[in-house]
Design a protein that fits this description.
Blueprint (H helix, E strand, L loop, with lengths): L14 H24 L6 H12 L25 H13 L2 H34 L6 E5 L3 E7 H4 L12 H14 L4 E6 L13 H19 L7 E5 L12 H7 L1 E7 L7
Helix pairs in contact: 2-3
Length: 269
Amino acid sequence: MAKRREEEPKKGAPEWQSTFADLMNLLLCFFVLLFSMSTVDAQKFELVAASFSKAFSIFTAGSTVVGDGAMIGNGVSQLPNIDDFINSVGQMAENTPEMEELDDLQSEIEAEGLKQSEELAEKIEEAVVENNLTGDIEMQVTAQYVQLTMKGSLLFNSGSAELKEESKPVLNKVGVILERYAAGTIEIEGHTDNVPMSSRRYANNNELSSARALSVFDYMMETTNLDPARIKHSGRGEYIPIADNSTEEGRAKNRRVEIRIYNEISSYE
């Protein structure tokens, strides 16, 4: 009996490999699109989504073309054009009348916030002068808040988070100002210089600055009727200097406690 001749395998990759490769291309395109959307400004997301839906029906229809040429289903053939496509969608969203309206609205909100902060600052400044606190407090104004800065040397001894007795009359006056004028969120931040420190109680500047902010918070809770739910406190360590840490004068300025009084438009929970 003659031997049966074995069939020669077909040339090229098996059919399942082609299908699998096409599936991988589709998934790659899909995740590239997801990644690109995740980096779009949150404020522009809805407009970008609308541009996708209107121009390409991606969210409502299905397999439509990304641009002129092959469909996404053809996989890798579209990859060289993905970046251009994403950039063009972003540019379209930025140039729409809706985005211009959002920019105008944001500018109006910032202007209103600055107005509120300046009005608040005027009242607080009058109180600071009346209470003879000009030598103990520095004041700054932004569109979000009015900031009161107190030197660390006024409040604490070196390496300690325990309030000095002589600092308490100043904090009492500050507490009255906060009760009278702080209608929104209050934030207390502790800051240090960059000189490394380590003690049995505090391992580093981060712990020390956090403990100092907490000490001020606790004192305000003991001596005022402020709502603790409206007050945040945190330690920022040595990472936000306002002066040169290479000089003693600069390090003294960096050792500080900041109290931010947010205006009503910028307050948050």
